[in-house]
């Protein structure tokens, strides 16, 4: 039954994608379908990663993933600084810098993907130079550090958690602004918005949060 269900090694693209599976099928067939659990698989060539280098564990060594998260309290008085733009609102985020929760999450995602620490280490709130600092400036510096380490951004995907304001009309403007900061194609920037469904600190408009995942690759 195993020999009938699994792909053959001859003339089948599965032999390229699943070399160990194909080798196992060959062993089973060559032993009249009697599988020996102690049978040693033959030596197989390593996969080749996207950069053309061999990776013995079969994984593309050129790809790195990072996740970023940030939360800020909200206080009365607008506008709301988010994604590098000012959005009309009756509340603003409170922080040592300009408190742009989205750009902070992106900054941490990039630094994390390249194992370069986090935003608090790079721009500590104990440094007076960071008081009121433009988060776009911090993101540019973090991006430059990842480039200096040999990485380029493939894409980023972000979520903003806020009860208000509604961000639908602002999404493309934010994505365009982030694309400009990172010199990245706008199509490589994903942005979603979620509310707190009127529950908890988020639903009561006491806080705003953002998360971001960044995928980096080794620059050629």
Keywords for this entry:
220 residues; alpha+beta; 60s Ribosomal Protein L30, Chain: A; 2 domains; five-stranded mixed sheet; two-stranded antiparallel ribbon; 8 helices; 30% helix; disordered N terminus
Helical fraction equals 25-40%
| Amino- and carboxy-terminal Cα gap | 46 Å
| Number of beta strands | 9
Q: Which stretches are low in confidence, meaning pLDDT under 50 for 5 or more residues running? A: 1-16, 44-60
Strand numbers in spatial order across the main sheet: 6-3-9-7-8
Q: Spell out the helices and strands N to C.
A: HHHEEEEEEHHHEHEHE
Rg calculated over all Cα atoms: 24 Å
Structural class by helix and strand composition: alpha+beta
Largest beta sheet, briefly?
A: 5 strands, mixed
CATH class of the largest domain: Alpha Beta
How would you concisely characterize the structure shown here?
This protein has 220 residues and is of the alpha+beta class. It has helices at 2-5, 14-17, 19-30, 101-113, 119-122, 135-148, 171-182, 200-203, and strands spanning 47-48, 54-55, 63-76, 80-82, 85-87, 91-94, 151-161, 189-194, 207-218.
What secondary-structure arrangement, pairings included, does this model have?
Elements: H1 2-5, H2 14-17, H3 19-30, E1 47-48, E2 54-55, E3 63-76, E4 80-82, E5 85-87, E6 91-94, H4 101-113, H5 119-122, H6 135-148, E7 151-161, H7 171-182, E8 189-194, H8 200-203, E9 207-218
Parallel strand pairs: 7-8
Antiparallel strand pairs: 1-2, 3-6, 3-9, 4-5, 7-9
């Amino acid at each position: 039954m195993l020999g009938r269900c699994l792909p053959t090694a001859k003339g089948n693209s599965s032999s390229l994608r699943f070399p160990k599976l194909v080798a196992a099928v060959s062993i089973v067939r060559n032993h009249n379908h009697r599988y020996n659990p102690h049978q040693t698989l033959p030596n197989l060539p390593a996969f080749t990663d996207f950069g053309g280098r061999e990776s013995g564990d079969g994984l593309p060594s050129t790809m790195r993933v990072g996740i970023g998260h940030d939360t800020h309290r909200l206080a009365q008085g607008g506008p709301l600084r988010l994604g590098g733009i000012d959005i009309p609102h009756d509340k603003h985020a409170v922080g040592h810098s300009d408190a742009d929760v989205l750009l902070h999450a992106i900054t941490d995602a990039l630094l994390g993907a390249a194992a370069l620490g986090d935003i608090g280490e790079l721009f500590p709130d104990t440094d007076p130079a960071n008081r009121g600092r433009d988060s776009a400036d911090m993101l540019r510096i973090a991006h430059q550090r990842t480039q200096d380490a040999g990485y380029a951004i493939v894409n980023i995907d972000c979520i903003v958690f806020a009860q208000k304001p509604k961000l639908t009309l602002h999404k493309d403007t934010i994505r365009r602004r982030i694309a400009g900061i990172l010199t990245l194609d706008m199509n490589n920037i994903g942005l979603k918005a979620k509310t707190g469904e009127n529950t908890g600190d988020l639903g009561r408009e006491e806080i705003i949060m953002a998360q971001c995942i960044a995928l980096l690759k080794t620059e050629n």
